[in-house]
Design brief:
mainly alpha; 8 helices; 0% strand
Amino acid sequence: MEMNIIKRILLYCFGMLLLAFGVTFSIKSNLGVSPINSIPYVLSVITDINMGLLTTGVFCFYVFLQVILLGKQFKAVNLLQIVFSGIFGYFVAFSNSIWTFTTVENYFFRLSLLIVSIILIAMGLLFYLTANIVPQPAEGLSLAISEKTNLEFSNIKIIFDCTVVILAIIISFSGTLSVIGIREGTVIAAIAVGKVLNILTKKFRPALLNLLENKSIYAD
């Protein structure tokens, strides 16, 4: 039993680290903010409020939506999603301190960084969600929607990311009469992460679950 818990923690931490690497490479690509950060970024530019504070607020709202969707099925332990979001921030800071290379202006190089980012994010999601400890609020909400609709998590992830990007564009245009922070990389990531996650899930999830000897919480 203790070994199973250790495996879960290691898999969770490794997944979070890969996810942080993906965020860093997304930033390095300079092709637009990531879908999950699009709403806090736009709100920060419009209101001049610290983006970290707004990110926490948006994430708390995602947890609130989970409570509404799941009702009595919502577990109190999932409130730790907010705490783990803060811990993830440290992973991102650590990742940024490692990957300090300067991005060249060549567009295809920047596009390659975006592709690497998408793969790393998808791998990170696969590992840390399979560990079945506590998801990040955005993934927690996607999991709640998946559970209620019986739709595959990777498909819900695509719908969720695209919806977030559309809302960010609407907010941006409403506040500034222009689109800020949203570029082709944002849209590509919104569509591609879920698709890559779906491929990785089908190929590697059975082996990961066998390693953990535990059933995953997200639907087939």
